[in-house]
């Protein structure tokens, strides 16, 4: 693993403490407080992350990652950065496309999540922040983010950093949770996630983190706001595709 640029031990507990001493739910935090409490939350759930991810996505997450990677139009030997790489599942999917001659680099600020990737013997992982990537400018053919942008304190800065590290013509893909557009589907999904996600979290001993999932989805930028942020960073050719009845959305863009 690359040298540490961030130390997860500096973080606050799952519910952050406000300046007046009161506790704030993670999904209500912003800025540095959001960064610290998100980092702490992922440190807590790292050992069970893969199992719960499989359960909550009905194991469809691999298929969704495959769709995102196809849209990157990569070829064998490509160079890809996976931001907020966590336990490394996106990196594995990308590796299938770029092959052994390709380069896949992962960045995440949570050491226990990277330790999960390390345990799976995924090479190329680095400790670092999405808002200040420890990566060279104009280097990568593509960049990905899987369920990461919802968690960063400033999406515009994250998009700008991703844009910086891509070479001209490089492609970007981000998969994340979304709110279904159809009101009926939205209500059903909200019920499902508000019920089953915290319940599963409780069974696995981390109820706060899995309450964070529906709460942060509710507060997450819309499809159009994400496109606007991508364009602000300089991306062109910005598109998105809904999956899972609009509960999951993939965004793509190109650095001109
Ligand atoms: C929901 S997990 C997704 C992990 C992985 N991308 C996947 O597809 O399974 C979100 C990851 O984003 C990381 N993360 C959140 N904010 C970050 C930031 N500001 N910089 C780097 N990593 C961050 C967390 O540590 C966590 O590993």
Q: How many domains in all? A: 2
Number of strands: 9
- Low-confidence regions: 3-14
- The CATH topology of the largest domain turns out to be Rossmann fold
Helix percent band: 40-55%
CA-based shape: globular
CATH architecture name of the largest domain: 3-Layer(aba) Sandwich
The CATH class name of the largest domain reads Alpha Beta
Largest sheet: 7 strands, mixed
CATH superfamily label of the largest domain: Vaccinia Virus protein VP39
- Main β-sheet, spatial strand arrangement: 5-4-3-6-7-9-8
**Counting H and I runs of at least 4 residues, what is the number of helices?**
9
- N-to-C CA distance: 32 Å
Mean pLDDT: 91
Order of helices and strands: EEHHHEHEHEEHEHHHEE
Alpha carbon gyration radius:
17 Å
Q: Which range does the strand content fall in? A: 15-25%
Q: Decide which structural class fits the backbone.
A: alpha/beta
Heteromolecules bound:
S-adenosylmethionine
């Amino acid at each position: 693993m690359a040298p540490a640029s961030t130390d997860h031990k500096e973080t606050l507990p799952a519910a952050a403490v406000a300046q007046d001493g009161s506790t704030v739910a993670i999904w209500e935090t912003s800025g540095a407080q959001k960064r610290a409490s998100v980092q702490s939350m992922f440190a807590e759930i790292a050992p069970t992350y893969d199992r719960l991810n499989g359960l909550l996505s009905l194991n469809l997450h691999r298929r969704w990652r495959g769709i995102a990677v196809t849209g990157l139009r990569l070829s064998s030997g490509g160079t890809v950065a996976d931001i907020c790489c966590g336990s490394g599942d996106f990196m594995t999917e990308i590796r299938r496309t770029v092959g052994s001659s390709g380069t896949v680099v992962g960045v995440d600020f949570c050491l226990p999540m990277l330790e999960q990737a390390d345990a799976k013997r995924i090479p190329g992982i680095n400790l670092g922040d999405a808002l200040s990537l420890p990566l060279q400018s104009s280097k990568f053919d593509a960049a990905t983010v899987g369920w990461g942008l919802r968690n960063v304190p400033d999406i515009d800065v994250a998009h700008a950093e991703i844009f910086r590290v891509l070479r001209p013509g490089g492609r970007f893909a981000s998969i994340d949770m979304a709110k279904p557009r159809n009101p009926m589907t939205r209500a059903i999904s909200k019920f499902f996630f508000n019920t089953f996600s915290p319940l599963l979290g409780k069974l696995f001993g981390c109820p706060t983190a899995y309450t964070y999932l529906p709460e942060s989805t509710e507060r997450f930028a819309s499809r159009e706001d994400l496109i606007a942020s991508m364009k602000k960073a300089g991306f062109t050719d910005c598109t998105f595709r809904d999956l899972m009845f609009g509960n999951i959305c993939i965004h793509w863009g190109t650095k001109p």
